[in-house]
Amino acid sequence: MEGLKKAAAREALKFIEDDMVVGLGTGSTTAYFIEYLGRLIMEGELEDVYGVPTSYQARLLALEKGIPVVGLDEVDAIDIAVDGADEVDPHLNLIKGRGAALTMEKIIEYRAGTFLVLVDESKLVERLGQKVPVPIEVIPAAWRAIAEEVEVFNAEAELRMASRKDGPVVTDNGNFILDVRFHRIEDPLDLEIELNNIPGVVENGIFADIADIVLVGTGEGVKKLER
Ligand code: 5RP
Fold first, then answer.
1. Residue ranges of the chain that CATH labels 3.40.50.1360
2. What is the pTM of this model?
3. Which helix (H) or strand (E) holds 135?
4. What is the CATH topology of the domain spanning 2-124+208-226?
5. Which of 77, 154, 159, 217 has a CA that sits 20 to 30 A from residue 19's CA?
6. Cα separations (Å) of 92 from 117, 123, 128?
């Protein structure tokens, strides 16, 4: 899978031009993109390119690789955002958030001129929720109430626990993550909106109607899917 992720990340470089502001996603696939982009900038192949990171992971990596980093509040517009995904359906709706960075990812990717998604072929599904739960970022005090409230959607929620820290995962924004397994997601856009209507929900990991292009690393090369 690493080879397929790298191939998609390399292909994504073709979308980057001088003077662009680039949203930098989170996760292992985007990490390859950030590394390759940094190399082009350091070698002088690209000029005046700035990165807007979606997480501490993206920020630290971008700085390490030599990409000038700016905040969302310092730019007039984001030309393109590049990020991975956990699932992609045939309409290019996504589930994101395994890396717990979904809120900043959505804030930046919603505003990008082009949102380019990088995945390997294992992420393609017929229906969202087939393989992974939907992550929901919640205000910590509300986690238990929300975990019960999502049951009306025929779903079960689990508080995401940390692996190298005791207790729950705490996001870059200081919140908790609920991983919610839905029995069937009929309408991703509807569910995305309904979940965000629950008080205490900061954002959820359904990205419906946002992705413009998906580059899929496959055994037969990188395929381009467009909405
Ligand atoms: C982080 C994300 C990631 O983009 C998503 O989990 C894909 O990660 P990877 O490229 O490591 O498979 O949404 O919040």
1. 2-124+208-226
2. 0.97
3. strand 134-138
4. Rossmann fold (3.40.50)
5. 217
6. 9, 11, 10
DSSP collapsed to 3 states, 184-201? CCCCHHHHHHHHHCCCCE
Question: How far apart are the CA of 96 and the centre of ligand 1, in A?
Answer: 6
Instruction: Sort strands 112-120 and 213-218 into parallel, antiparallel or unpaired.
Output: parallel
What Å distances lie between residue 171 and 6, 39, 137, CA to CA? 27, 29, 8
**In the predicted model, is pLDDT for residue 32 greater than 90?**
yes
Which residues are 112's β-sheet partners? 78
> Is 99 touching ligand 1 by the criterion CB < 6 Å?
yes
Confirm or reject: Cβ of 217 under 6 Å from ligand 1. Answer: no
**Model confidence band, residue 131 (pLDDT cutoffs 50, 70, 90):** very high
- The rounded percent of the chain whose pLDDT value lies above 90 is 99
Span 134-204: which CATH code? Answer: 3.30.70.260
Does 227 have pLDDT greater than 90? no
Active site residue 105: yes
